[in-house]
Amino acid sequence: PISGAGTIVVVASGVPLLPFNATDGALSPGASAGVDFGRGAALRRVAYSDNKATMLDFSPPRAALPAENATFSLSVSPTAAAVPVSAPLVFSFFDDTVSLSCAGGCLAPGTGAGALTLTLTNVPVTDVNQLSVLFGTLPPKAVSLGAVGVGTAEVSVTPPDFSCALCSFGPGGGATVRLSASAGGARASADFTFWDAPRVLSAA
Fold it and tell me: Which of 19, 61, 75, 192 has the most Cβ atoms closer than 10 angstroms to its Cβ?
């Protein structure tokens, strides 16, 4: 993921044996192993290194953008004096950002709003019963699950009437709450604005 979470496990053959501490996987002084992802990747440990293969665990860097099947470079050196051995490494970074967006904008009239479509990214939902949607503290009038793709889901929601003990519109006739959708331990949110119906306050 572009957030830098998790562990990258690299298994390589044809590289020099790496001296390391079998207890904690730390490289011996002078030895080195690294992957150039443009921002570097910290070596967590050497899992094993023998005549057949070497397994290395890296902490991935944060990536600026997703990348699919990009080629990076693995560099291994058993001693400070040895010439490093390099090998190409094909790797992909995916966007694990959790987000929510509204088709046509996150806004609706304070009463009688029609259904609107939300797009959820990286919120794992396959059944509408898994999903919790709130407009501030108010539940929607209706929720249905639409198309579900890889990492995305479309949800149709009918906003509630903006009417509660603490609900009030500002001087400009609008009120902004936090629209949230959660499922599977992931929660996405965005500002949502209700607007008050225009009305005549006085006439002369």
Answer: 192
Starting at the edge strand that comes first in sequence, how are the strands of the sheet with 99-102 ordered? 99-102, 116-121, 152-158, 142-148
Position 101 confidence tier, pLDDT thresholds 50, 70, 90 = very high
Predicted confidence (pLDDT) per residue in 46-76, tens digit: 999 999 999 999 887 776 566 677 778 888 8
* pTM of the model as a whole: 0.65
pLDDT in tens, 174-194: 999 999 999 989 999 999 999
Residue 26 CA to residue 110 CA, distance in Å, equals 61
Find residue 159's DSSP bridge partners: none
Handedness of CA 33, 39, 45, 50 (dihedral sign): negative
Dist. CA 58–CA 54, nearest whole Å: 13
Q: Which of these, 154, 150, 159, lies nearest to 119 by C-alpha position?
A: 154
Contact between residue 140 and residue 155 where contact means Cβ atoms under 8 Å apart: no
